[in-house]
Amino acid sequence: MIELLKSYGGLSFGQNGSHFEPKPVLPPLPNKCDWEIDPSELDLSTAFIVGKGSFGEILRASWRGTPVAVKRILPSLSEDKLVVHEVNMLVKLRHPNIVQFLGAVTERKPLMLITEFLRGGDLHQYLKEKGSLSPSTAVNFALDIARGMAYLHSEPNVIIHRDLKPRNILLVNANADHLKVGDFGLSKLIKVQNSHDVYKMTGETGSYRYMAPEVFKHRKYDKKVDVFSFSMILYEMLEGDPPLVNYEAYEAAKYVSQGHRPIFRAKGYLPELRELTEQCWAADVNQRPSFIEILKKLEKIKENLSPDHHWHLFTQ
After folding, report:
1. Which pLDDT tens digits describe the chain residue by residue (316 residues)?
2. Helix/strand/coil (H/E/C) assignment for every residue in the chain
3. Pair 141, 238: CB distance under 8 Å
4. Half-sphere exposure of 118 (CA within 13 A, CB side)
5. Whole-prediction pTM value?
6. Starting at the edge strand that comes first in sequence, how are the strands of the sheet with 56-63 ordered?
7. Is 163 a catalytic residue?
8. Residue 180 forms beta bridges with which residues?
9. Residues 37 and 114: beta-carbon distance below 8 Å
10. What does residue 295 show for φ and ψ, rounded to 5 degrees?
11. Candidate list 122, 144, 163, 183, residue with the active-site label
12. What residue ranges define each of the domains in the chain, with the CATH number in brackets?
């Protein structure tokens, strides 16, 4: 039947990362999944909270002698069947620029998601302390983020992050020589009433600063929303301040949805980086490059960098 339908032009869905395409019915799962973690294996005796939000809290704990991050989800927000199927996919992901998902507690409440624990903190705090980054550091950071996102966006099982922001980008260590993208599954694992609620889950309205205009306006969207968020992060790394820092977060998202964009003020970084940022925040989603294309542009920029490079200065 499938071959017959294809011969008449039928198409299969769910291959390009669209949030609105129908998906096939998933097969039943075994009673016990390989990634299911017994809560008794988690040592919470010396655990401490490293983050909070409307979804619950994040703890630094220990699992089988290894430091891990434990996200405890409020029981009212979790939907068992959805969680089981999504975790079954997330636990299989392997990439050096993706926070390693280790498993979950789903057979008891509260639901807990367990990932590797990174000691370097997040990009939000790093930028808050360091301010604008040098061109070489900004390019290296951007490459790490883009590599992780290109992996998540790869066919056939596209994962749209939908909440890409500095707080969800983690530094592997205090030397800040390696970044990983985190919390890419959380937006799918928690029940939301509509796409707008995805950006409310963390309880941080700052998410609105990195939100694509099509999401803010409740329109159809696909994986290019992550490209838009990436552009805002790149802007922040170059400028040293969050985009539209003089606006409240919600007002900033509203301003952007009306076609406006942040203004470049800093001097001393490559025009190519500014050009890439502007391409990624294009109002027309079809004009935004994919992360594979972004990687090619960034690698070319990096090739042209040298210790004695004279930066092209420009003004608004």
Report:
1. 777 777 776 665 555 566 655 555 656 555 668 899 999 999 999 999 988 776 788 999 999 999 999 988 887 776 656 677 678 888 889 999 999 999 999 888 888 999 999 989 899 999 999 999 999 999 999 999 999 999 999 988 889 999 999 999 999 988 888 999 998 766 666 666 666 666 665 555 568 999 999 999 999 999 999 999 999 999 999 999 999 999 999 999 999 999 999 999 887 668 999 999 999 999 999 999 999 999 999 999 999 886 544 444 443 3
2. CHHHHHHCCCCCCCCCCCCCCCCCCCCCCCCCCCCECCHHHEEEEEEEEEEEECCEEEEEEEECCEEEEEEEECHHHECHHHHHHHHHHHCCCCCCCECCEEEEECCCCCEEEEEECCCCCEHHHHHHHHCCCCHHHHHHHHHHHHHHHHHHCCCCCCCCCCCCCHHHEEECCCCCCCEEECCCCHHHHECCCCHHHHHHCCCCHHHHHHCCHHHHCCCCCCCHHHHHHHHHHHHHHHHCCCCCCCCCHHHHHHHHHCCCCCCCCCCCCCHHHHHHHHHHCCCCHHHCCCHHHHHHHHHHHHHCCCCCCCCCCCCC
3. no
4. 28
5. 0.83
6. 42-53, 56-63, 66-73, 111-116, 101-105
7. yes
8. 170
9. yes
10. -60, -40
11. 163
12. 39-116 (3.30.200.20), 123-303 (1.10.510.10)
Q: Are 295 and 146 in contact (CB under 8 A)?
A: yes
* Residue 146: other Cβ atoms inside 10 A: 27
Token pair 């694992």 in the structure block, residue: 189
Structure-block tokens of residue 217? 């306006």
Taken as a whole, the chain contains a residue count of: 316
Residue type, 138: A
Q: How far apart are CA 56 and CA 69, in angstroms?
A: 13
